[in-house]
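Tokens for chain A. Residues wanted.
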């Protein structure tokens, strides 16, 4: 247990991804049967946004803004005033993630694109640091590096699935409404 808690905090991106999956499963278990593919996508995407974007970026905000020395050491850097800027950017992404939890498609699109570009840019920075300075600190070359790549990939897949199922659902609703009008 003494190593599990530091692992969970140091690898917070993976921890929040797993918490989002657990919340999705709980949400789906509480839904009436049969569970549709659309409901599965909605549960996965909404809790992904809440945990992997909202809570994860809020945690990043707290660490970079209030515990900058610790965050810098974890990444293998020196403390810098830039830490606060990264923190406040993370706060912005967190707020959009929280709003997108039950938000519209457009809000969800914004909640995916900004953080995805930030994370992919961070992954590029990690690669540069590994190649140029041999920085293999766990906050630069560990789980954080891999989730900086996979979180955007997951978010775009979930966004596409959400769009696909929302579009299908809207088409079916429109067809039903047209049939209902024709019956009048």
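Reply:
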């Amino acid at each position: 247990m003494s190593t599990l808690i530091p692992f969970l905090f140091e690898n917070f991106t993976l921890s929040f991804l797993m918490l989002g999956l657990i919340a999705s499963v709980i949400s789906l278990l509480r839904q009436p049967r049969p569970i549709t593919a659309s409901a599965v996508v909605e549960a996965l995407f909404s809790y992904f946004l809440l945990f992997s974007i909202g809570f994860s970026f809020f945690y990043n905000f707290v660490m970079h803004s209030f515990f900058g020395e610790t965050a810098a050491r974890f990444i293998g850097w020196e403390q810098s005033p830039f830490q606060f800027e990264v923190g406040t950017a993370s706060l912005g992404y967190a707020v959009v993630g929280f709003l997108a939890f039950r938000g519209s498609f457009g809000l969800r699109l914004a909640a995916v694109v900004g953080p995805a570009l930030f994370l992919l840019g961070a992954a590029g920075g990690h690669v540069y640091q590994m190649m140029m300075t041999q920085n293999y600190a766990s906050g630069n070359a560990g789980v954080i590096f891999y989730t900086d790549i996979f979180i955007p990939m997951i978010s775009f897949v979930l966004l596409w699935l959400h769009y696909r199922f929302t579009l299908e659902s809207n088409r079916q609703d429109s067809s039903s409404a047209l049939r209902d009008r024709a019956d009048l």
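The chain has one domain: 12-168. Residues 61 and 88 are 6 Å apart (CA to CA).
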